[in-house]
Amino acid sequence: MSATITDRLKAWAYLSRVVEGPSAHLHYLLTQGRDPEAIAHGVRHREPWIGDLLKETASRHDWDTAQQDLEKLLAMDGRLITPEDREWPTAEFDHAFGFAASGMSEHVRTYQEDAVPPHALWVRGRDLQSLTSQAVAIVGTRAVSHYGRDVTRMMVDTLVPHQWTIISGGALGVDTVAHTSAVHAGGSTVMVAACGLDRSYPARNQALFNEIVQKKAGAIISEYPPGTPPQRHRFLTRNRLVAALSQGTVVTEAAWRSGALNTLSWASGLGRVAMAVPGPVTTAGSLGCHERIRTGQAEMVCSGDEVRSLLGAIGGLDPHEQYELNFAANPIQGLSRNELRVFDSLGSLPREVSDIASDTGLSLALVVHLLVELDKRGVITREGTRWGRVVPSGGEAPGDRAIGD
Questions:
Q1: CATH tag, 328-389
Q2: Tens digit of pLDDT for each residue in 131-140?
Protein backbone atom coordinates (compact mmCIF):
# COMPACT_ATOMS: atom_id res chain seq x y z
CA MET A 1 0.00 0.00 0.00
CA SER A 2 1.42 3.37 -0.90
CA ALA A 3 1.92 6.14 1.65
CA THR A 4 -0.98 8.01 0.02
CA ILE A 5 -4.31 7.04 1.54
CA THR A 6 -6.92 7.81 -1.09
CA ASP A 7 -10.63 8.39 -0.57
CA ARG A 8 -11.33 5.15 -2.42
CA LEU A 9 -9.03 3.17 -0.16
CA LYS A 10 -10.70 4.73 2.86
CA ALA A 11 -14.09 3.66 1.47
CA TRP A 12 -12.87 0.05 1.26
CA ALA A 13 -11.43 0.27 4.80
CA TYR A 14 -14.69 1.73 6.12
CA LEU A 15 -16.69 -1.11 4.56
CA SER A 16 -14.27 -3.64 6.04
CA ARG A 17 -14.95 -2.16 9.47
CA VAL A 18 -18.74 -1.75 9.37
CA VAL A 19 -19.61 -4.84 7.27
CA GLU A 20 -18.14 -7.93 8.92
CA GLY A 21 -17.68 -10.50 6.20
CA PRO A 22 -18.75 -12.67 4.68
CA SER A 23 -21.55 -10.45 3.42
CA ALA A 24 -23.75 -11.73 0.62
CA HIS A 25 -25.49 -8.33 0.48
CA LEU A 26 -22.29 -6.34 -0.04
CA HIS A 27 -21.00 -8.96 -2.45
CA TYR A 28 -24.17 -8.60 -4.53
CA LEU A 29 -23.84 -4.81 -4.77
CA LEU A 30 -20.18 -5.05 -5.78
CA THR A 31 -20.88 -7.68 -8.45
CA GLN A 32 -23.61 -5.41 -9.83
CA GLY A 33 -20.93 -2.79 -10.48
CA ARG A 34 -21.76 -0.52 -7.55
CA ASP A 35 -18.89 1.79 -6.65
CA PRO A 36 -17.38 1.11 -3.18
CA GLU A 37 -17.34 4.83 -2.42
CA ALA A 38 -21.04 5.07 -3.28
CA ILE A 39 -21.83 2.04 -1.11
CA ALA A 40 -19.84 3.53 1.77
CA HIS A 41 -21.75 6.81 1.39
CA GLY A 42 -25.02 4.90 1.32
CA VAL A 43 -24.15 3.05 4.53
CA ARG A 44 -23.07 6.22 6.35
CA HIS A 45 -26.18 8.16 5.35
CA ARG A 46 -28.64 5.23 5.62
CA GLU A 47 -29.76 5.39 2.00
CA PRO A 48 -32.56 2.93 1.11
CA TRP A 49 -30.96 1.73 -2.14
CA ILE A 50 -28.35 -0.32 -0.24
CA GLY A 51 -31.16 -2.69 0.73
CA ASP A 52 -30.31 -5.33 3.31
CA LEU A 53 -27.04 -3.60 4.14
CA LEU A 54 -29.13 -1.14 6.15
CA LYS A 55 -29.99 -3.84 8.66
CA GLU A 56 -26.54 -5.42 8.48
CA THR A 57 -24.79 -2.14 9.39
CA ALA A 58 -27.40 -0.75 11.81
CA SER A 59 -25.12 -0.89 14.84
CA ARG A 60 -21.82 -0.10 13.12
CA HIS A 61 -22.46 2.50 10.42
CA ASP A 62 -20.90 5.26 12.54
CA TRP A 63 -17.68 3.30 13.14
CA ASP A 64 -15.64 5.41 10.72
CA THR A 65 -12.03 4.64 11.66
CA ALA A 66 -10.76 4.06 8.12
CA GLN A 67 -7.93 6.61 8.29
CA GLN A 68 -6.67 5.26 11.61
CA ASP A 69 -6.96 1.63 10.48
CA LEU A 70 -4.99 2.27 7.30
CA GLU A 71 -2.32 4.27 9.12
CA LYS A 72 -1.97 1.55 11.75
CA LEU A 73 -1.39 -1.17 9.18
CA LEU A 74 0.90 1.07 7.11
CA ALA A 75 3.06 1.51 10.22
CA MET A 76 3.29 -2.30 10.35
CA ASP A 77 4.42 -2.34 6.69
CA GLY A 78 1.06 -3.79 5.74
CA ARG A 79 -1.60 -2.93 3.19
CA LEU A 80 -5.28 -3.32 2.37
CA ILE A 81 -6.01 -5.15 -0.88
CA THR A 82 -9.32 -5.41 -2.75
CA PRO A 83 -10.61 -6.98 -5.97
CA GLU A 84 -9.26 -3.89 -7.75
CA ASP A 85 -5.64 -4.83 -6.93
CA ARG A 86 -3.34 -6.93 -9.10
CA GLU A 87 -2.39 -9.20 -6.19
CA TRP A 88 -6.01 -10.08 -5.39
CA PRO A 89 -6.30 -13.90 -5.80
CA THR A 90 -9.06 -13.56 -8.37
CA ALA A 91 -8.62 -16.97 -10.00
CA GLU A 92 -8.72 -18.83 -6.69
CA PHE A 93 -11.76 -16.99 -5.37
CA ASP A 94 -13.62 -17.26 -8.69
CA HIS A 95 -13.03 -21.01 -8.77
CA ALA A 96 -13.96 -21.63 -5.13
CA PHE A 97 -16.96 -19.37 -4.69
CA GLY A 98 -18.14 -19.94 -8.25
CA PHE A 99 -18.35 -23.65 -7.44
CA ALA A 100 -20.23 -22.85 -4.21
CA ALA A 101 -22.73 -20.71 -6.11
CA SER A 102 -23.36 -23.53 -8.61
CA GLY A 103 -25.31 -25.50 -5.97
CA MET A 104 -23.36 -28.69 -6.72
CA SER A 105 -22.21 -29.13 -3.13
CA GLU A 106 -24.60 -30.59 -0.57
CA HIS A 107 -22.38 -29.34 2.25
CA VAL A 108 -22.27 -25.68 1.33
CA ARG A 109 -26.06 -25.41 1.10
CA THR A 110 -26.24 -25.55 4.89
CA TYR A 111 -24.55 -22.16 5.16
CA GLN A 112 -24.82 -20.66 1.69
CA GLU A 113 -24.87 -17.12 3.10
CA ASP A 114 -21.23 -17.52 4.17
CA ALA A 115 -20.10 -18.94 0.83
CA VAL A 116 -19.03 -15.62 -0.66
CA PRO A 117 -15.55 -14.14 -1.03
CA PRO A 118 -14.16 -11.42 1.22
CA HIS A 119 -14.58 -7.85 -0.01
CA ALA A 120 -11.13 -6.79 1.25
CA LEU A 121 -8.07 -8.35 2.88
CA TRP A 122 -5.53 -6.84 5.26
CA VAL A 123 -2.07 -8.16 4.35
CA ARG A 124 1.45 -8.20 5.70
CA GLY A 125 4.19 -9.85 3.67
CA ARG A 126 4.60 -10.99 0.09
CA ASP A 127 2.31 -10.78 -2.94
CA LEU A 128 -0.78 -12.87 -2.18
CA GLN A 129 -1.69 -13.73 -5.76
CA SER A 130 1.69 -15.31 -6.50
CA LEU A 131 1.71 -17.16 -3.18
CA THR A 132 -1.66 -18.80 -3.80
CA SER A 133 -1.17 -19.73 -7.46
CA GLN A 134 0.09 -23.14 -6.30
CA ALA A 135 -0.93 -23.77 -2.71
CA VAL A 136 -2.15 -26.51 -0.41
CA ALA A 137 -3.76 -26.10 3.02
CA ILE A 138 -2.46 -28.25 5.87
CA VAL A 139 -4.54 -28.16 9.05
CA GLY A 140 -5.29 -30.31 12.06
CA THR A 141 -5.75 -30.61 15.78
CA ARG A 142 -4.33 -28.21 18.35
CA ALA A 143 -3.56 -31.22 20.60
CA VAL A 144 -1.02 -32.58 18.13
CA SER A 145 0.76 -35.83 18.93
CA HIS A 146 4.33 -36.85 18.03
CA TYR A 147 2.80 -38.79 15.13
CA GLY A 148 0.90 -35.72 13.94
CA ARG A 149 4.03 -33.57 14.10
CA ASP A 150 6.04 -36.10 12.11
CA VAL A 151 3.36 -36.50 9.45
CA THR A 152 2.89 -32.74 9.07
CA ARG A 153 6.64 -32.12 8.74
CA MET A 154 6.93 -34.97 6.24
CA MET A 155 4.14 -33.52 4.09
CA VAL A 156 5.60 -30.02 4.10
CA ASP A 157 9.17 -31.18 3.45
CA THR A 158 7.96 -33.07 0.37
CA LEU A 159 5.75 -30.30 -1.01
CA VAL A 160 8.05 -27.28 -0.52
CA PRO A 161 10.75 -28.36 -3.03
CA HIS A 162 8.02 -28.49 -5.67
CA GLN A 163 7.13 -24.85 -4.92
CA TRP A 164 3.86 -25.50 -3.09
CA THR A 165 2.87 -22.73 -0.71
CA ILE A 166 1.62 -24.04 2.65
CA ILE A 167 -1.57 -22.35 3.90
CA SER A 168 -2.86 -22.73 7.45
CA GLY A 169 -4.59 -20.86 10.25
CA GLY A 170 -1.74 -20.08 12.63
CA ALA A 171 -3.26 -22.04 15.54
CA LEU A 172 -1.26 -24.09 18.02
CA GLY A 173 -0.67 -27.71 17.06
CA VAL A 174 -0.69 -28.86 13.44
CA ASP A 175 -1.04 -25.32 12.03
CA THR A 176 2.10 -24.16 13.85
CA VAL A 177 4.08 -27.21 12.71
CA ALA A 178 2.98 -26.62 9.10
CA HIS A 179 3.99 -22.94 9.09
CA THR A 180 7.26 -23.55 10.93
CA SER A 181 8.26 -26.46 8.71
CA ALA A 182 7.63 -24.41 5.58
CA VAL A 183 9.78 -21.53 6.85
CA HIS A 184 12.62 -23.81 7.98
CA ALA A 185 12.55 -25.67 4.65
CA GLY A 186 13.00 -22.39 2.78
CA GLY A 187 9.47 -22.49 1.40
CA SER A 188 6.47 -20.16 1.41
CA THR A 189 3.52 -20.05 3.77
CA VAL A 190 0.33 -18.03 4.26
CA MET A 191 -1.26 -17.62 7.68
CA VAL A 192 -4.95 -16.68 7.65
CA ALA A 193 -5.81 -14.90 10.90
CA ALA A 194 -9.16 -14.72 12.69
CA CYS A 195 -8.41 -11.29 14.17
CA GLY A 196 -6.84 -7.97 13.23
CA LEU A 197 -3.19 -8.09 12.14
CA ASP A 198 -2.12 -5.86 15.02
CA ARG A 199 -2.93 -8.77 17.34
CA SER A 200 -0.92 -11.96 17.62
CA TYR A 201 -3.18 -14.90 18.35
CA PRO A 202 -2.14 -17.18 19.80
CA ALA A 203 0.42 -14.97 21.60
CA ARG A 204 2.83 -17.91 21.74
CA ASN A 205 3.20 -17.71 17.95
CA GLN A 206 4.13 -14.02 17.74
CA ALA A 207 7.77 -14.83 16.93
CA LEU A 208 6.65 -17.22 14.16
CA PHE A 209 4.34 -14.62 12.62
CA ASN A 210 7.12 -12.02 12.68
CA GLU A 211 9.49 -14.51 11.09
CA ILE A 212 7.08 -15.17 8.22
CA VAL A 213 6.95 -11.46 7.40
CA GLN A 214 10.52 -10.41 8.19
CA LYS A 215 12.13 -13.37 6.38
CA LYS A 216 9.78 -12.82 3.44
CA ALA A 217 8.70 -16.42 3.79
CA GLY A 218 5.11 -15.60 2.89
CA ALA A 219 2.24 -13.51 4.17
CA ILE A 220 -0.16 -13.05 7.06
CA ILE A 221 -3.67 -12.03 6.03
CA SER A 222 -6.99 -11.24 7.65
CA GLU A 223 -10.51 -10.38 6.62
CA TYR A 224 -10.73 -8.20 9.73
CA PRO A 225 -9.43 -4.64 10.30
CA PRO A 226 -6.89 -3.79 13.03
CA GLY A 227 -8.17 -4.12 16.57
CA THR A 228 -10.66 -6.90 15.81
CA PRO A 229 -10.44 -9.54 18.57
CA PRO A 230 -10.40 -13.29 17.90
CA GLN A 231 -13.82 -14.82 18.58
CA ARG A 232 -15.17 -18.30 17.97
CA HIS A 233 -17.33 -17.44 14.96
CA ARG A 234 -14.38 -15.71 13.26
CA PHE A 235 -12.36 -18.92 13.29
CA LEU A 236 -15.15 -20.70 11.40
CA THR A 237 -15.33 -17.81 8.93
CA ARG A 238 -11.54 -17.90 8.56
CA ASN A 239 -11.65 -21.59 7.65
CA ARG A 240 -13.46 -20.90 4.37
CA LEU A 241 -10.56 -18.66 3.25
CA VAL A 242 -7.96 -21.30 4.14
CA ALA A 243 -9.84 -23.74 1.91
CA ALA A 244 -10.60 -21.24 -0.88
CA LEU A 245 -7.03 -20.02 -1.29
CA SER A 246 -5.61 -23.51 -1.76
CA GLN A 247 -6.08 -26.13 -4.44
CA GLY A 248 -6.68 -28.75 -1.79
CA THR A 249 -6.81 -29.23 1.99
CA VAL A 250 -5.02 -31.94 3.98
CA VAL A 251 -5.96 -32.78 7.56
CA THR A 252 -2.92 -34.53 9.04
CA GLU A 253 -4.44 -35.31 12.46
CA ALA A 254 -7.94 -34.64 13.81
CA ALA A 255 -10.06 -36.19 16.52
CA TRP A 256 -13.81 -36.79 16.23
CA ARG A 257 -14.94 -33.17 16.80
CA SER A 258 -11.80 -31.33 15.70
CA GLY A 259 -12.38 -27.82 14.29
CA ALA A 260 -10.01 -28.70 11.45
CA LEU A 261 -12.74 -30.86 9.96
CA ASN A 262 -14.72 -27.66 9.29
CA THR A 263 -11.95 -26.53 6.94
CA LEU A 264 -12.11 -29.92 5.22
CA SER A 265 -15.86 -29.52 4.76
CA TRP A 266 -15.29 -26.08 3.24
CA ALA A 267 -12.77 -27.60 0.83
CA SER A 268 -15.44 -29.97 -0.49
CA GLY A 269 -18.04 -27.20 -0.56
CA LEU A 270 -15.75 -24.93 -2.57
CA GLY A 271 -14.78 -27.52 -5.17
CA ARG A 272 -11.34 -28.18 -3.74
CA VAL A 273 -9.72 -31.55 -3.06
CA ALA A 274 -10.37 -32.79 0.48
CA MET A 275 -7.67 -35.12 1.89
CA ALA A 276 -6.97 -36.78 5.23
CA VAL A 277 -4.07 -38.76 6.66
CA PRO A 278 -4.88 -42.00 8.50
CA GLY A 279 -3.45 -42.42 12.00
CA PRO A 280 -2.92 -45.10 14.61
CA VAL A 281 -6.08 -47.04 15.47
CA THR A 282 -4.88 -47.35 19.06
CA THR A 283 -5.60 -43.70 19.87
CA ALA A 284 -8.55 -41.32 19.38
CA GLY A 285 -6.44 -38.57 17.82
CA SER A 286 -7.22 -39.50 14.21
CA LEU A 287 -10.85 -40.58 14.53
CA GLY A 288 -12.03 -37.53 12.57
CA CYS A 289 -9.66 -38.34 9.70
CA HIS A 290 -10.73 -42.00 9.70
CA GLU A 291 -14.43 -41.11 9.57
CA ARG A 292 -13.97 -38.74 6.61
CA ILE A 293 -11.96 -41.37 4.74
CA ARG A 294 -14.44 -44.15 5.61
CA THR A 295 -17.45 -42.16 4.36
CA GLY A 296 -15.69 -41.00 1.20
CA GLN A 297 -15.70 -37.35 2.24
CA ALA A 298 -11.91 -37.20 2.00
CA GLU A 299 -9.24 -38.91 -0.05
CA MET A 300 -6.68 -40.87 1.94
CA VAL A 301 -3.12 -39.56 1.54
CA CYS A 302 0.06 -40.90 3.10
CA SER A 303 2.71 -38.66 1.52
CA GLY A 304 3.28 -35.30 -0.10
CA ASP A 305 3.67 -37.04 -3.44
CA GLU A 306 0.18 -38.50 -3.08
CA VAL A 307 -1.13 -35.00 -2.37
CA ARG A 308 0.51 -33.68 -5.55
CA SER A 309 -0.89 -36.59 -7.53
CA LEU A 310 -4.43 -36.03 -6.25
CA LEU A 311 -4.36 -32.32 -6.98
CA GLY A 312 -3.61 -33.32 -10.54
CA ALA A 313 -2.34 -31.30 -13.45
CA ILE A 314 -4.86 -28.51 -12.92
CA GLY A 315 -5.89 -29.01 -9.29
CA GLY A 316 -9.48 -29.68 -10.27
CA LEU A 317 -12.00 -32.35 -9.39
CA ASP A 318 -13.40 -33.20 -12.81
CA PRO A 319 -12.08 -36.63 -13.89
CA HIS A 320 -13.06 -35.98 -17.49
CA GLU A 321 -10.84 -32.90 -17.56
CA GLN A 322 -8.01 -35.01 -16.18
CA TYR A 323 -8.50 -37.63 -18.89
CA GLU A 324 -8.29 -34.87 -21.49
CA LEU A 325 -4.92 -33.87 -20.06
CA ASN A 326 -3.58 -37.40 -19.63
CA PHE A 327 -4.45 -38.37 -23.19
CA ALA A 328 -3.83 -35.01 -24.83
CA ALA A 329 -3.18 -34.86 -28.57
CA ASN A 330 0.09 -32.94 -28.13
CA PRO A 331 2.47 -31.97 -25.30
CA ILE A 332 1.03 -28.47 -24.97
CA GLN A 333 -2.49 -29.75 -24.29
CA GLY A 334 -1.08 -31.82 -21.41
CA LEU A 335 0.40 -28.86 -19.55
CA SER A 336 -0.94 -27.83 -16.15
CA ARG A 337 -2.64 -24.49 -15.57
CA ASN A 338 0.51 -22.82 -14.27
CA GLU A 339 2.70 -24.43 -16.92
CA LEU A 340 0.36 -23.01 -19.55
CA ARG A 341 0.63 -19.56 -17.97
CA VAL A 342 4.41 -19.70 -18.29
CA PHE A 343 4.36 -21.22 -21.79
CA ASP A 344 1.84 -18.68 -23.08
CA SER A 345 4.00 -15.82 -21.80
CA LEU A 346 6.79 -16.94 -24.13
CA GLY A 347 6.46 -15.45 -27.59
CA SER A 348 8.69 -15.71 -30.64
CA LEU A 349 11.63 -14.08 -28.79
CA PRO A 350 13.30 -15.51 -25.65
CA ARG A 351 12.51 -13.73 -22.37
CA GLU A 352 14.18 -13.21 -19.00
CA VAL A 353 12.80 -15.10 -15.99
CA SER A 354 11.92 -11.85 -14.21
CA ASP A 355 9.82 -10.72 -17.18
CA ILE A 356 8.00 -14.06 -17.28
CA ALA A 357 7.26 -13.84 -13.54
CA SER A 358 5.94 -10.30 -13.92
CA ASP A 359 3.73 -11.28 -16.86
CA THR A 360 2.26 -14.40 -15.22
CA GLY A 361 1.96 -13.10 -11.67
CA LEU A 362 3.72 -16.21 -10.37
CA SER A 363 6.61 -16.13 -7.91
CA LEU A 364 10.14 -16.14 -9.32
CA ALA A 365 10.93 -19.47 -7.64
CA LEU A 366 7.81 -21.14 -9.09
CA VAL A 367 8.54 -19.76 -12.57
CA VAL A 368 12.09 -21.19 -12.47
CA HIS A 369 10.71 -24.55 -11.30
CA LEU A 370 8.13 -24.62 -14.12
CA LEU A 371 10.65 -23.56 -16.76
CA VAL A 372 12.89 -26.48 -15.80
CA GLU A 373 9.90 -28.84 -16.07
CA LEU A 374 8.92 -27.46 -19.48
CA ASP A 375 12.54 -27.78 -20.64
CA LYS A 376 12.52 -31.46 -19.64
CA ARG A 377 9.41 -31.93 -21.79
CA GLY A 378 11.19 -30.41 -24.76
CA VAL A 379 8.68 -27.62 -25.43
CA ILE A 380 10.96 -24.72 -24.44
CA THR A 381 14.67 -24.06 -24.58
CA ARG A 382 17.18 -21.92 -22.71
CA GLU A 383 19.44 -19.40 -24.40
CA GLY A 384 21.82 -17.97 -21.81
CA THR A 385 19.62 -16.37 -19.17
CA ARG A 386 16.56 -16.31 -21.43
CA TRP A 387 13.90 -18.85 -22.24
CA GLY A 388 11.85 -19.36 -25.39
CA ARG A 389 9.64 -21.86 -27.15
CA VAL A 390 11.15 -24.69 -29.13
CA VAL A 391 10.65 -24.11 -32.86
CA PRO A 392 10.52 -27.42 -34.79
CA SER A 393 11.99 -27.87 -38.25
CA GLY A 394 8.64 -26.95 -39.82
CA GLY A 395 8.96 -23.46 -38.38
CA GLU A 396 5.82 -23.41 -36.22
CA ALA A 397 6.41 -23.46 -32.48
CA PRO A 398 4.27 -25.90 -30.52
CA GLY A 399 1.31 -24.07 -29.12
CA ASP A 400 1.18 -21.47 -31.92
CA ARG A 401 -2.18 -22.93 -32.84
CA ALA A 402 -5.14 -22.81 -30.48
CA ILE A 403 -5.30 -25.68 -28.03
CA GLY A 404 -8.58 -26.82 -29.49
CA ASP A 405 -7.18 -27.06 -33.02
A1: 1.10.10.10
A2: 999 999 999 9
Secondary structure element (H or E) that encloses residue 288, with its range: helix 287-294
Q: What is the CA radius of gyration of the chain?
A: 22
Residue 47: CB atoms within 10 A of its CB come to 14
Among the ranges given (1-5, 9-13, 295-299), the one the predictor scored with the smallest mean pLDDT: 1-5
Domain boundaries, the chain: 7-64, 94-311, 328-389
Contacts of 23 (CB under 8 A, 6+ apart): 53, 56, 116, 119
In 228-303, DSSP assigns E strands to 248-251, 273-276, 299-300
Encode burial over 100-110: b for 16+ CB neighbours within 10 A, e otherwise: beeeebebbee
Q: What is the pTM of this model?
A: 0.84
The three-state secondary structure class of 72 is: helix
Residue 131 contacts residue 302 (beta carbons within 8 Å) = no
Q: In angstroms, rounded to a whole number, what is the distance separating the alpha carbons of residues 63 and 54?
A: 14
Question: What is the edge-to-edge ordering of all strands in the sheet holding 189-193?
Answer: 78-81, 121-125, 218-222, 189-193, 165-168, 135-139, 248-251, 273-276, 299-300
DSSP one-letter string for 196-225: -TTS-SSGGGHHHHHHHHHTTSEEEEESS-
What's domain 94-311's architecture?
3-Layer(aba) Sandwich (3.40)
